[in-house]
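Hi R.,

As promised on Friday, here is the backbone we talked about, encoded as structure tokens. Could you run it through your design pipeline when you get a chance and send me back a sequence?
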């Protein structure tokens, strides 16, 4: 049941990891998540992770999917 989803997610991860701008965004986003976790701020960590997922989705559309249009 989960195999097709796992395959799609792995491919999207590989696609986004090849783009330097996306890599820079991810590093910044991970730093924000880590800072919140280190401070023990669960609310901020959750918000930072949500922001990271939104940034990744935006980057996927901007840098990866736009190339295939």
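Update: got your reply. Pasting your designed sequence below so it's all in one thread:
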């Amino acid at each position: 049941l989960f195999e097709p989803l796992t395959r799609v997610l792995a491919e999207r991860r590989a696609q986004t990891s090849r783009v330097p701008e996306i890599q820079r965004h991810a590093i910044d986003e991970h730093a924000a998540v880590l800072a919140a976790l280190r401070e023990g701020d669960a609310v901020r960590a959750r918000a930072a992770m949500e922001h990271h997922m939104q940034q990744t989705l935006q980057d996927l559309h901007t840098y990866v999917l736009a190339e295939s249009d």
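One thing I noticed while checking it: Residues 42-64 form the longest helix (23 residues).

Thanks again,
M.
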